[in-house]
Write a structure and sequence with these properties.
5 helices, 6 strands, two-stranded antiparallel ribbon, alpha/beta, disordered C terminus, 28% helix, 169 residues, four-stranded parallel beta sheet
Length: 169
Amino acid sequence: VKFEKGKVYPMVIFLHGIGDCADDWINKAKTVECYSALLKRKEIEPMVLVFAESGYDKRSWYVSWKKDKRKRYEDYFIKELIPEVEKRYSCGGRQGLRGICGLSMGGYGAINLTMRNSEIFKCGGSFAGCVNLYRLSFLNKNGGLFNMLYISEAVMGEDERIKTFVRAV
C-alpha cells in the first residue's frame, strides 16, 4: 500500500486469542491477504493494521491486573502502544480513526478496551469472544450498554446477506 504523505489513515488493532500470537492474524487468518484483495477491489480504503501481542504468556486478557502492578496491559495499549503507532505512522489520532477487534480472548479484550475507552475507539469487534455484554455495560464510562449494537444477518440464517447488519439496539 502506498500511503500519501500528509494524509492520516484509520488504524485497526487486532488482538489474538489465548495461547495464540499476533502472527496468527497474518499466517493463519490471512488478514493481510484479505485486506490487500479488498483494497485492490476498492471495497475498503487504505488503513494501518496493527497486530498486537497480549503479553503474560499469551494470557493477559488485555487488562491491567489489580493484584500485579507489573501486568498493566490496558494501560500499555492505551498509553504506550497507540501513541507510538500513531507517532510512527500517519494513522489514528482521534476516535473516528481507531478500531479494535479480536478473536476469543482478544474479542473480550477488544470489547472491554472499547467499552472502557470509548473516547479512544470508534468501534470494537469480537470474533467468538468470551464477552458478557451486561457486565461490560457497567464499564462504559459514558453510561448505558451501547449506542448501537449490530449483528450480522448471517447469524440470523441469511448467508447471502453476510455483509448486511441488523441494528439490535
